[in-house]
Amino acid sequence: MKKYAEELDASDPLSRFRKKFFIDDPELIYLDGNSLGRLPLDSITSAKNLVEKEWGVDLIRGWGKGWLNSPEKISEKLAKVIGAQPEEVIIADSTSINLFKLVLSALKFQSSKREIITDDLNFPSDLYVLEAVVKVVEMDHEIKIINSEDGIMGPEKKIISNITDKTALVTLSHTTFKSGYTYDLIKITQAAHQKGALTIFDLSHSVGSMPIHLNKDNVDMAVGCTYKYLNGGPGAPAFIYIRKDLMEKLINHIYGWMGKKDMFDFSLEYDPDPTIRQFLTGTIPVLSTLLIENGVNLILEAGIDNLRQKSIKQTDYLINLWNDELKKIGFSMNSPIETSRRGSHISLGHEEGWRIDQALINDMKVIPDFRTPNLLRLGIAPLYTSYVDIYKAIQRIKEVVEQGIYKKYSKEKLKVT
To answer: Is residue 373 reached through a cis peptide bond, with omega within 30 degrees of 0 on the bond before it?
Structure first.
């Protein structure tokens, strides 16, 4: 079995990209790239230059040498990854703040409609944002949370059937954070538009791991983070997408000088920038913004279609190993089997999932992550995850269970999982 994994790696046209990342311990199997991507080697060089030269030497002159337009510069490249036009994307703030901006803007624009549709597989903080915006607008909006029947598959048909003329907004995670289920952007968007509703998708768990065609699919708005498959670094700024023909109809209600038409006239009246730059608010976090570029460059160099093809092959391989090795020792499959409905992470359920997770991290040199109530998420980042990584991880998971290594760990969960 290991020999087969080695053969797959030897024939993998993307295997060369692994060498473009900082890997301190070759024995460590990192399967958490769906939460935080590895460090590109180019980012080490960039960070040194940013701190020592651009900040240290240029000082405030750096704003005139590229800092001010850094969101547009990187967004132009990111747009290619998500199937958008450069003028439709802007790097800004965090995913939650960007979602707040777009939801508030959408509800104000759709002022005659009072319904928001989402699902129970959505990332919880996205639901918190919806609750907060509804309280802010004070217009008696109803948030309809459509429940998944099994906690794995998104309730796509039920969502579509619940969209009515009263629906202002449909907002979902494109790829769900627990199971990796992936929605059909076209179907949801078409159903929403038929009833006059707008769509916002959170792309955080899909961007950089699969092709996304926002323009082609006529998606209205989207947000997403850059520190997972895009390898932008911990807490790296997120991005906003707004379809070009919607731009002049939507308003960023969180005013700030970076979103002003002429930010340096310092007038006391706010006149928003007519471009997507309006959706900037505060000062650009220059260091973290510029470090996003190296990860995006690698995605573009590898080709998103190639990355998706490898992701499918690797997750299929993992599922086959689960079926042969782990199913018989109590692990359930909590991700879609159908490739078109599956993102780039696999969730395995086990009644001792938390303690197994701790044993893998502390004893076996395997880093997955854990999600309640009992899920081990194994993230496949095709830029640097090898087939041998996957094979070894499954063997070590098996060893943890069969030898009872997990039993020495407490059932009490840590704050960071």
So the answer is: yes
Pick the catalytic residue from 227, 317, 331, 370: 227
Q: What is the pLDDT of residue 412?
A: 86
Rounded average pLDDT over 288-311: 98
Question: Can 369 be counted among the known catalytic residues?
Answer: no
Same domain, 24 and 63: no
Over residues 68-84, mean pLDDT: 98
> Is 227 a residue of the active site?
yes
Catalytic site includes residue 202: yes
Question: What CATH number does the domain containing 229 carry?
Answer: 3.40.640.10
Tens-digit pLDDT profile for residues 322-338: 999 999 999 999 999 99
Q: Is the Cβ–Cβ distance between 86 and 72 less than 8 Å?
A: yes
Predicted confidence at residue 4, as pLDDT, reads: 96
Q: Is pLDDT of 97 > 90?
A: yes
Q: What is the 3-state secondary structure (H, E, C) of 318-341?
A: HHHHHHHHHHHHCCEECCCCCHHH
Residue among 32, 202, 220, 389 flagged as catalytic:
202
Q: Is the pTM of this model over 0.85?
A: yes
Residue 139 φ/ψ, nearest 5 degrees = -125, 25
Catalytic residue flag (residue 128): no
228, 342, 355, 392: the catalytic one is 228
Q: Which of 17, 100, 123, 384 is catalytic?
A: 123
Task: Say whether both 245 and 211 belong to one domain.
Answer: yes
To the query of whether residue 187 is one of the catalytic residues in this protein, the response is no
Q: Does 37 fall in a domain?
A: no
